[in-house]
Amino acid sequence: MGTINSGIVAFNDGLWAYLLIPLLIVLSLYFTVRSGAVQFRLLPAMFRAIREDPGLTSDGGRPISAFQAFAVSAAARIGTGNIVGVATAIALGGPGAIFWMWVMALLVGAASFVESTLAQLYKVGGKGLYHGGPAYYMERGLGSRWMGVLFAVVITVTFGFVFTSVQSNTISTAIANTASAVTGAESAWWLPYAVGVVLAVSTGVIIFGGARRIARTATMLVPFMAAVYLLMGLAVVAMNIDQIPAVMTDIVMHAFGLREIAAGGIGTAIVQGVRRGMFSNEAGLGSAPNAAASASVSHPVKQGLVQTLGVYFDTLVVCSTTAFIVLLSDPTYTEGAGPTLTQNALEANLGSWALHLLTLIILLVAFTSVLGNTFYGSANVGYLTSNANVMTVFRLSVVLVTFLGAIGSSSLIWNLADTTMGLMALVNLAALALLAPTACRLLTDFVEQRRRGEDPVFTRDRMPDLTGVECWDQEELARLRKASARA
User: Fold this and answer.
1) Distance between CA atoms of residues 35 and 227, nearest Å
2) Residue ranges making up the domain that contains 31
Protein backbone atom coordinates (compact mmCIF):
# COMPACT_ATOMS: atom_id res chain seq x y z
CA MET A 1 0.00 0.00 0.00
CA GLY A 2 2.86 2.37 0.80
CA THR A 3 4.39 1.83 -2.64
CA ILE A 4 1.05 2.58 -4.35
CA ASN A 5 0.62 5.72 -2.28
CA SER A 6 4.16 6.92 -3.11
CA GLY A 7 3.55 6.34 -6.81
CA ILE A 8 0.33 8.35 -6.70
CA VAL A 9 2.11 11.20 -4.92
CA ALA A 10 4.88 11.30 -7.54
CA PHE A 11 2.33 11.31 -10.37
CA ASN A 12 0.31 14.08 -8.71
CA ASP A 13 3.38 16.27 -8.21
CA GLY A 14 4.24 16.09 -11.90
CA LEU A 15 0.65 16.49 -13.09
CA TRP A 16 -0.02 19.59 -11.00
CA ALA A 17 3.34 21.36 -11.09
CA TYR A 18 4.15 20.91 -14.78
CA LEU A 19 0.79 20.68 -16.52
CA LEU A 20 -2.38 21.57 -14.64
CA ILE A 21 -1.30 24.67 -12.71
CA PRO A 22 0.35 26.37 -15.73
CA LEU A 23 -2.68 25.50 -17.89
CA LEU A 24 -5.14 26.81 -15.30
CA ILE A 25 -3.20 30.07 -14.93
CA VAL A 26 -2.89 30.67 -18.68
CA LEU A 27 -6.56 29.91 -19.40
CA SER A 28 -7.81 31.92 -16.43
CA LEU A 29 -5.80 34.92 -17.67
CA TYR A 30 -7.31 34.40 -21.13
CA PHE A 31 -10.86 34.23 -19.70
CA THR A 32 -10.19 37.33 -17.60
CA VAL A 33 -8.98 39.38 -20.57
CA ARG A 34 -11.61 38.04 -23.00
CA SER A 35 -14.46 38.79 -20.57
CA GLY A 36 -13.18 42.20 -19.54
CA ALA A 37 -12.40 40.98 -16.01
CA VAL A 38 -16.00 39.92 -15.41
CA GLN A 39 -15.13 38.49 -11.97
CA PHE A 40 -14.37 42.03 -10.75
CA ARG A 41 -16.43 44.23 -13.04
CA LEU A 42 -19.84 42.69 -12.29
CA LEU A 43 -19.46 42.01 -8.59
CA PRO A 44 -22.63 44.00 -7.65
CA ALA A 45 -24.64 42.05 -10.25
CA MET A 46 -23.64 38.80 -8.52
CA PHE A 47 -25.53 39.81 -5.37
CA ARG A 48 -28.60 40.82 -7.39
CA ALA A 49 -28.64 37.58 -9.38
CA ILE A 50 -28.55 35.33 -6.33
CA ARG A 51 -31.89 36.77 -5.16
CA GLU A 52 -33.82 36.07 -8.38
CA ASP A 53 -37.24 34.42 -7.95
CA PRO A 54 -37.49 31.28 -10.15
CA GLY A 55 -41.31 31.36 -10.24
CA LEU A 56 -43.32 28.15 -10.42
CA THR A 57 -43.17 25.09 -12.64
CA SER A 58 -46.12 24.18 -14.87
CA ASP A 59 -47.41 21.78 -12.19
CA GLY A 60 -47.30 24.47 -9.49
CA GLY A 61 -44.07 23.24 -7.89
CA ARG A 62 -40.96 25.26 -7.13
CA PRO A 63 -38.00 24.89 -9.48
CA ILE A 64 -34.45 25.06 -8.17
CA SER A 65 -33.61 28.73 -7.64
CA ALA A 66 -30.34 30.55 -8.24
CA PHE A 67 -29.71 30.52 -4.48
CA GLN A 68 -30.51 26.81 -4.13
CA ALA A 69 -28.10 25.96 -6.95
CA PHE A 70 -25.55 28.17 -5.18
CA ALA A 71 -26.24 26.27 -1.93
CA VAL A 72 -25.78 22.87 -3.60
CA SER A 73 -22.44 23.93 -5.07
CA ALA A 74 -21.50 25.53 -1.73
CA ALA A 75 -22.42 22.28 0.01
CA ALA A 76 -19.86 20.50 -2.17
CA ARG A 77 -17.33 23.34 -1.93
CA ILE A 78 -17.56 24.06 1.78
CA GLY A 79 -16.26 20.81 3.11
CA THR A 80 -13.03 19.29 4.24
CA GLY A 81 -11.16 21.37 1.65
CA ASN A 82 -11.92 24.49 3.71
CA ILE A 83 -10.94 23.03 7.08
CA VAL A 84 -8.60 20.09 6.58
CA GLY A 85 -7.41 21.01 3.07
CA VAL A 86 -6.33 24.53 4.01
CA ALA A 87 -4.59 23.24 7.13
CA THR A 88 -2.79 20.63 5.03
CA ALA A 89 -1.69 23.31 2.56
CA ILE A 90 -0.20 25.31 5.44
CA ALA A 91 1.45 22.25 6.94
CA LEU A 92 3.11 21.35 3.62
CA GLY A 93 3.64 24.73 2.00
CA GLY A 94 3.82 27.12 4.94
CA PRO A 95 1.91 30.43 5.27
CA GLY A 96 2.78 31.39 1.69
CA ALA A 97 0.32 28.77 0.39
CA ILE A 98 -2.51 31.02 1.58
CA PHE A 99 -1.32 33.95 -0.53
CA TRP A 100 -1.35 31.83 -3.67
CA MET A 101 -4.74 30.43 -2.71
CA TRP A 102 -6.09 34.01 -2.60
CA VAL A 103 -4.47 35.01 -5.90
CA MET A 104 -5.83 31.97 -7.69
CA ALA A 105 -9.34 32.49 -6.32
CA LEU A 106 -9.42 35.98 -7.85
CA LEU A 107 -8.03 34.71 -11.12
CA VAL A 108 -10.07 31.52 -11.55
CA GLY A 109 -13.30 33.38 -10.85
CA ALA A 110 -13.33 34.00 -14.62
CA ALA A 111 -13.11 30.25 -15.29
CA SER A 112 -16.00 29.64 -12.90
CA PHE A 113 -18.08 32.25 -14.75
CA VAL A 114 -17.40 30.69 -18.15
CA GLU A 115 -18.17 27.10 -17.15
CA SER A 116 -21.37 27.89 -15.24
CA THR A 117 -22.70 30.22 -17.97
CA LEU A 118 -22.13 27.50 -20.56
CA ALA A 119 -23.84 24.94 -18.31
CA GLN A 120 -26.93 27.17 -18.21
CA LEU A 121 -26.94 27.71 -21.98
CA TYR A 122 -26.71 24.01 -22.84
CA LYS A 123 -28.90 22.62 -20.04
CA VAL A 124 -31.72 20.22 -20.88
CA GLY A 125 -35.14 19.48 -19.44
CA GLY A 126 -37.88 22.05 -19.19
CA LYS A 127 -40.83 23.38 -17.22
CA GLY A 128 -38.50 24.64 -14.53
CA LEU A 129 -36.70 21.33 -13.92
CA TYR A 130 -33.29 21.24 -15.56
CA HIS A 131 -30.02 19.35 -15.54
CA GLY A 132 -26.74 19.78 -17.34
CA GLY A 133 -23.04 20.42 -16.87
CA PRO A 134 -19.75 20.05 -18.73
CA ALA A 135 -20.71 16.74 -20.35
CA TYR A 136 -23.69 18.48 -21.92
CA TYR A 137 -21.79 21.51 -23.22
CA MET A 138 -19.08 19.25 -24.57
CA GLU A 139 -21.62 17.28 -26.60
CA ARG A 140 -23.99 20.12 -27.52
CA GLY A 141 -21.54 22.98 -27.82
CA LEU A 142 -18.58 21.11 -29.31
CA GLY A 143 -20.44 18.21 -30.92
CA SER A 144 -18.15 15.82 -29.05
CA ARG A 145 -20.10 12.98 -27.44
CA TRP A 146 -16.94 11.03 -26.61
CA MET A 147 -15.55 13.97 -24.65
CA GLY A 148 -18.81 14.31 -22.72
CA VAL A 149 -18.78 10.60 -21.89
CA LEU A 150 -15.16 10.76 -20.74
CA PHE A 151 -15.90 13.72 -18.47
CA ALA A 152 -19.09 12.15 -17.11
CA VAL A 153 -17.22 8.99 -16.15
CA VAL A 154 -14.33 10.87 -14.52
CA ILE A 155 -16.55 13.24 -12.51
CA THR A 156 -18.77 10.38 -11.36
CA VAL A 157 -15.73 8.52 -10.03
CA THR A 158 -14.16 11.69 -8.60
CA PHE A 159 -17.14 13.18 -6.81
CA GLY A 160 -19.45 10.23 -6.42
CA PHE A 161 -16.79 7.96 -4.98
CA VAL A 162 -13.34 9.47 -4.25
CA PHE A 163 -14.44 12.85 -2.83
CA THR A 164 -17.23 11.17 -0.89
CA SER A 165 -14.59 8.94 0.70
CA VAL A 166 -12.56 12.04 1.60
CA GLN A 167 -15.53 13.59 3.38
CA SER A 168 -16.53 10.50 5.36
CA ASN A 169 -12.89 9.84 6.28
CA THR A 170 -12.58 13.38 7.65
CA ILE A 171 -15.74 12.97 9.72
CA SER A 172 -14.42 9.72 11.14
CA THR A 173 -11.02 11.25 11.97
CA ALA A 174 -12.57 14.31 13.64
CA ILE A 175 -14.90 12.22 15.79
CA ALA A 176 -12.01 9.93 16.81
CA ASN A 177 -9.94 12.99 17.77
CA THR A 178 -12.77 14.34 19.90
CA ALA A 179 -13.32 10.97 21.56
CA SER A 180 -9.62 10.79 22.44
CA ALA A 181 -9.74 14.30 23.91
CA VAL A 182 -12.72 13.38 26.09
CA THR A 183 -11.43 10.01 27.33
CA GLY A 184 -7.72 10.77 27.36
CA ALA A 185 -7.04 7.49 25.56
CA GLU A 186 -7.00 6.11 22.03
CA SER A 187 -10.48 5.93 20.48
CA ALA A 188 -12.09 2.49 20.32
CA TRP A 189 -11.31 0.34 17.27
CA TRP A 190 -14.98 0.03 16.43
CA LEU A 191 -15.68 3.78 16.34
CA PRO A 192 -14.86 4.33 12.62
CA TYR A 193 -17.16 1.42 11.73
CA ALA A 194 -20.00 2.87 13.79
CA VAL A 195 -19.48 6.31 12.25
CA GLY A 196 -19.44 4.76 8.79
CA VAL A 197 -22.75 2.97 9.34
CA VAL A 198 -24.50 6.12 10.62
CA LEU A 199 -23.16 8.21 7.72
CA ALA A 200 -24.11 5.60 5.14
CA VAL A 201 -27.68 5.30 6.41
CA SER A 202 -28.15 9.08 6.67
CA THR A 203 -26.77 9.59 3.18
CA GLY A 204 -29.01 6.93 1.71
CA VAL A 205 -32.16 8.43 3.22
CA ILE A 206 -31.50 11.79 1.54
CA ILE A 207 -29.99 10.88 -1.83
CA PHE A 208 -32.75 8.42 -2.69
CA GLY A 209 -35.15 11.36 -2.42
CA GLY A 210 -33.67 12.96 -5.55
CA ALA A 211 -32.27 16.35 -6.53
CA ARG A 212 -34.96 18.46 -4.87
CA ARG A 213 -34.42 16.83 -1.48
CA ILE A 214 -30.66 17.32 -1.78
CA ALA A 215 -31.19 21.00 -2.70
CA ARG A 216 -33.57 21.56 0.25
CA THR A 217 -31.20 19.90 2.71
CA ALA A 218 -28.22 21.90 1.46
CA THR A 219 -30.21 25.14 1.65
CA MET A 220 -31.04 24.47 5.30
CA LEU A 221 -27.60 23.35 6.48
CA VAL A 222 -25.07 25.43 4.53
CA PRO A 223 -25.93 28.91 5.91
CA PHE A 224 -26.08 27.59 9.48
CA MET A 225 -22.77 25.73 9.48
CA ALA A 226 -20.94 28.50 7.63
CA ALA A 227 -22.18 31.14 10.09
CA VAL A 228 -21.11 29.15 13.16
CA TYR A 229 -17.66 28.44 11.74
CA LEU A 230 -17.11 32.07 10.73
CA LEU A 231 -18.13 33.25 14.21
CA MET A 232 -15.55 30.92 15.77
CA GLY A 233 -12.92 32.28 13.40
CA LEU A 234 -13.82 35.87 14.24
CA ALA A 235 -13.51 35.03 17.93
CA VAL A 236 -9.99 33.69 17.41
CA VAL A 237 -9.00 36.75 15.37
CA ALA A 238 -10.45 39.12 18.00
CA MET A 239 -8.49 37.35 20.76
CA ASN A 240 -5.25 37.67 18.77
CA ILE A 241 -5.84 40.94 16.95
CA ASP A 242 -2.38 42.22 17.81
CA GLN A 243 -0.80 39.31 15.92
CA ILE A 244 -2.65 39.93 12.62
CA PRO A 245 0.07 42.21 11.11
CA ALA A 246 2.73 39.60 11.84
CA VAL A 247 0.60 36.82 10.31
CA MET A 248 -0.03 38.87 7.15
CA THR A 249 3.70 39.57 6.89
CA ASP A 250 4.44 35.85 7.19
CA ILE A 251 1.92 35.02 4.46
CA VAL A 252 3.46 37.48 1.99
CA MET A 253 7.10 36.77 2.87
CA HIS A 254 6.71 33.01 2.61
CA ALA A 255 4.75 33.36 -0.63
CA PHE A 256 7.81 34.76 -2.37
CA GLY A 257 10.34 32.49 -0.68
CA LEU A 258 11.77 35.28 1.45
CA ARG A 259 11.72 33.12 4.56
CA GLU A 260 12.71 29.50 4.91
CA ILE A 261 10.00 26.91 5.57
CA ALA A 262 10.26 23.24 6.35
CA ALA A 263 8.38 22.04 3.29
CA GLY A 264 10.71 23.44 0.67
CA GLY A 265 10.20 27.04 -0.39
CA ILE A 266 8.18 29.00 -2.91
CA GLY A 267 7.49 26.11 -5.29
CA THR A 268 5.80 24.04 -2.60
CA ALA A 269 3.83 27.05 -1.38
CA ILE A 270 2.46 27.73 -4.85
CA VAL A 271 1.62 24.11 -5.63
CA GLN A 272 -0.06 23.47 -2.28
CA GLY A 273 -1.95 26.76 -2.36
CA VAL A 274 -3.32 26.18 -5.85
CA ARG A 275 -4.00 22.47 -5.39
CA ARG A 276 -5.88 22.80 -2.10
CA GLY A 277 -7.56 25.97 -3.27
CA MET A 278 -8.86 24.18 -6.34
CA PHE A 279 -10.06 21.26 -4.22
CA SER A 280 -11.98 23.78 -2.12
CA ASN A 281 -13.45 26.30 -4.59
CA GLU A 282 -13.58 23.90 -7.58
CA ALA A 283 -13.28 26.72 -10.15
CA GLY A 284 -12.44 25.33 -13.58
CA LEU A 285 -12.86 21.83 -12.27
CA GLY A 286 -16.22 21.22 -13.95
CA SER A 287 -18.19 20.32 -10.83
CA ALA A 288 -20.12 23.49 -9.93
CA PRO A 289 -21.65 23.76 -13.46
CA ASN A 290 -23.68 20.64 -12.70
CA ALA A 291 -25.45 22.55 -9.94
CA ALA A 292 -25.52 25.79 -11.95
CA ALA A 293 -27.39 24.11 -14.80
CA SER A 294 -30.24 23.09 -12.49
CA ALA A 295 -31.25 26.67 -11.64
CA SER A 296 -34.20 28.42 -13.24
CA VAL A 297 -32.97 31.91 -14.24
CA SER A 298 -33.83 34.38 -17.00
CA HIS A 299 -30.33 34.62 -18.50
CA PRO A 300 -27.39 32.14 -18.47
CA VAL A 301 -24.98 34.87 -17.34
CA LYS A 302 -26.89 35.34 -14.09
CA GLN A 303 -25.99 31.88 -12.82
CA GLY A 304 -22.44 32.30 -14.07
CA LEU A 305 -22.17 35.36 -11.84
CA VAL A 306 -23.75 33.53 -8.89
CA GLN A 307 -21.26 30.68 -9.12
CA THR A 308 -18.35 33.14 -9.33
CA LEU A 309 -19.59 34.65 -6.08
CA GLY A 310 -19.44 31.12 -4.67
CA VAL A 311 -15.71 30.94 -5.44
CA TYR A 312 -15.11 34.17 -3.53
CA PHE A 313 -17.20 33.11 -0.56
CA ASP A 314 -15.49 29.74 -0.38
CA THR A 315 -11.87 30.86 -0.65
CA LEU A 316 -11.70 34.48 0.47
CA VAL A 317 -14.09 34.04 3.40
CA VAL A 318 -14.26 30.43 4.61
CA CYS A 319 -10.74 29.29 3.67
CA SER A 320 -9.28 32.53 5.04
CA THR A 321 -11.07 31.88 8.32
CA THR A 322 -9.29 28.53 8.60
CA ALA A 323 -5.97 30.10 7.65
CA PHE A 324 -6.13 32.71 10.41
CA ILE A 325 -7.31 30.16 12.98
CA VAL A 326 -4.29 27.97 12.19
CA LEU A 327 -1.64 30.67 11.72
CA LEU A 328 -2.58 32.49 14.92
CA SER A 329 -1.73 29.32 16.85
CA ASP A 330 1.93 29.21 15.70
CA PRO A 331 1.62 25.84 13.90
CA THR A 332 4.32 23.31 13.08
CA TYR A 333 4.87 22.95 9.34
CA THR A 334 5.19 19.20 9.02
CA GLU A 335 3.54 16.73 6.68
CA GLY A 336 1.52 14.88 9.30
CA ALA A 337 0.14 17.96 11.00
CA GLY A 338 -2.60 18.81 8.48
CA PRO A 339 -5.65 16.73 9.42
CA THR A 340 -5.90 17.87 13.08
CA LEU A 341 -4.24 21.29 12.79
CA THR A 342 -7.47 23.30 12.79
CA GLN A 343 -8.96 21.34 15.65
CA ASN A 344 -5.87 21.81 17.81
CA ALA A 345 -5.67 25.53 16.98
CA LEU A 346 -9.28 26.14 18.01
CA GLU A 347 -8.83 24.16 21.22
CA ALA A 348 -5.72 26.18 22.09
CA ASN A 349 -7.52 29.50 21.55
CA LEU A 350 -11.07 28.84 22.71
CA GLY A 351 -10.87 25.80 24.96
CA SER A 352 -11.91 22.16 24.69
CA TRP A 353 -15.54 23.02 23.87
CA ALA A 354 -14.37 24.47 20.54
CA LEU A 355 -12.79 21.15 19.61
CA HIS A 356 -16.15 19.41 20.03
CA LEU A 357 -18.07 22.15 18.23
CA LEU A 358 -15.65 21.98 15.30
CA THR A 359 -16.20 18.24 15.16
CA LEU A 360 -19.91 18.93 14.73
CA ILE A 361 -19.18 21.54 12.05
CA ILE A 362 -16.87 19.14 10.21
CA LEU A 363 -19.59 16.52 10.38
CA LEU A 364 -22.10 18.94 8.84
CA VAL A 365 -19.84 20.38 6.14
CA ALA A 366 -18.52 16.98 5.14
CA PHE A 367 -22.01 15.48 5.14
CA THR A 368 -23.42 18.24 2.93
CA SER A 369 -20.40 17.77 0.67
CA VAL A 370 -21.38 14.12 0.28
CA LEU A 371 -24.85 15.29 -0.78
CA GLY A 372 -23.41 17.83 -3.23
CA ASN A 373 -21.04 15.19 -4.60
CA THR A 374 -23.94 12.81 -5.12
CA PHE A 375 -25.88 15.54 -6.92
CA TYR A 376 -22.98 15.92 -9.37
CA GLY A 377 -22.59 12.18 -9.82
CA SER A 378 -26.33 11.70 -10.39
CA ALA A 379 -26.40 14.43 -13.05
CA ASN A 380 -23.64 12.67 -14.98
CA VAL A 381 -24.99 9.18 -14.57
CA GLY A 382 -28.20 10.61 -16.04
CA TYR A 383 -26.16 11.90 -18.97
CA LEU A 384 -24.63 8.47 -19.59
CA THR A 385 -27.88 6.50 -19.38
CA SER A 386 -31.59 6.92 -18.67
CA ASN A 387 -31.78 3.44 -17.10
CA ALA A 388 -33.30 3.86 -13.63
CA ASN A 389 -31.58 0.71 -12.40
CA VAL A 390 -28.15 2.18 -13.15
CA MET A 391 -29.02 5.26 -11.09
CA THR A 392 -30.10 3.03 -8.22
CA VAL A 393 -26.81 1.12 -8.40
CA PHE A 394 -24.90 4.41 -8.38
CA ARG A 395 -26.71 5.64 -5.27
CA LEU A 396 -26.19 2.34 -3.48
CA SER A 397 -22.50 2.53 -4.40
CA VAL A 398 -22.30 6.02 -2.88
CA VAL A 399 -23.77 4.66 0.34
CA LEU A 400 -21.17 1.86 0.37
CA VAL A 401 -18.27 4.22 -0.40
CA THR A 402 -19.43 6.52 2.42
CA PHE A 403 -18.97 3.63 4.82
CA LEU A 404 -15.63 2.47 3.36
CA GLY A 405 -14.20 6.00 3.45
CA ALA A 406 -14.82 6.22 7.19
CA ILE A 407 -12.55 3.23 7.83
CA GLY A 408 -9.94 3.85 5.08
CA SER A 409 -6.46 5.39 4.96
CA SER A 410 -6.66 9.19 4.96
CA SER A 411 -3.40 9.80 3.06
CA LEU A 412 -4.26 7.39 0.23
CA ILE A 413 -7.77 8.83 -0.12
CA TRP A 414 -6.52 12.45 -0.28
CA ASN A 415 -3.88 11.55 -2.86
CA LEU A 416 -6.42 9.74 -5.05
CA ALA A 417 -8.62 12.83 -4.82
CA ASP A 418 -5.77 14.97 -6.18
CA THR A 419 -5.28 12.55 -9.08
CA THR A 420 -8.88 12.24 -10.23
CA MET A 421 -9.51 15.97 -9.68
CA GLY A 422 -6.55 16.83 -11.89
CA LEU A 423 -7.64 14.54 -14.71
CA MET A 424 -11.18 15.91 -14.54
CA ALA A 425 -9.94 19.50 -14.68
CA LEU A 426 -7.82 18.81 -17.78
CA VAL A 427 -10.84 17.57 -19.76
CA ASN A 428 -13.02 20.47 -18.64
CA LEU A 429 -10.40 23.17 -19.27
CA ALA A 430 -9.91 21.88 -22.82
CA ALA A 431 -13.64 22.36 -23.49
CA LEU A 432 -13.70 25.80 -21.85
CA ALA A 433 -10.83 27.02 -24.03
CA LEU A 434 -12.90 26.22 -27.13
CA LEU A 435 -16.26 27.49 -25.85
CA ALA A 436 -15.17 30.68 -24.06
CA PRO A 437 -16.15 32.91 -27.03
CA THR A 438 -19.75 31.70 -26.69
CA ALA A 439 -19.83 32.59 -22.98
CA CYS A 440 -18.43 36.03 -23.82
CA ARG A 441 -21.16 36.58 -26.42
CA LEU A 442 -23.74 35.85 -23.74
CA LEU A 443 -21.98 38.28 -21.42
CA THR A 444 -22.12 41.02 -24.06
CA ASP A 445 -25.86 40.39 -24.52
CA PHE A 446 -26.38 40.57 -20.75
CA VAL A 447 -24.45 43.82 -20.36
CA GLU A 448 -26.20 45.49 -23.30
CA GLN A 449 -29.62 44.73 -21.82
CA ARG A 450 -28.55 46.13 -18.47
CA ARG A 451 -27.34 49.32 -20.14
CA ARG A 452 -30.83 49.78 -21.55
CA GLY A 453 -32.22 49.53 -18.04
CA GLU A 454 -33.75 46.07 -18.62
CA ASP A 455 -33.69 42.96 -16.46
CA PRO A 456 -31.65 40.73 -18.80
CA VAL A 457 -33.48 37.77 -20.35
CA PHE A 458 -32.34 35.33 -23.00
CA THR A 459 -34.08 33.21 -25.60
CA ARG A 460 -32.35 31.06 -28.16
CA ASP A 461 -33.66 33.14 -31.07
CA ARG A 462 -31.32 35.94 -29.93
CA MET A 463 -28.42 33.80 -31.15
CA PRO A 464 -29.94 31.47 -33.76
CA ASP A 465 -26.53 30.40 -35.06
CA LEU A 466 -25.82 28.48 -31.83
CA THR A 467 -26.53 24.76 -32.17
CA GLY A 468 -27.41 22.32 -29.42
CA VAL A 469 -29.45 24.81 -27.35
CA GLU A 470 -32.57 22.98 -26.16
CA CYS A 471 -34.12 25.30 -23.57
CA TRP A 472 -34.53 29.09 -23.60
CA ASP A 473 -37.72 29.33 -25.66
CA GLN A 474 -40.45 31.98 -25.60
CA GLU A 475 -42.66 29.97 -23.23
CA GLU A 476 -39.94 29.88 -20.59
CA LEU A 477 -39.31 33.59 -21.10
CA ALA A 478 -42.96 34.36 -20.40
CA ARG A 479 -42.93 32.27 -17.21
CA LEU A 480 -39.79 33.96 -15.92
CA ARG A 481 -41.17 37.42 -16.68
CA LYS A 482 -44.26 36.59 -14.62
CA ALA A 483 -42.00 35.44 -11.76
CA SER A 484 -40.00 38.68 -12.02
CA ALA A 485 -43.20 40.73 -11.92
CA ARG A 486 -44.35 38.93 -8.76
CA ALA A 487 -40.97 39.60 -7.14
Assistant:
1) 33
2) 11-486
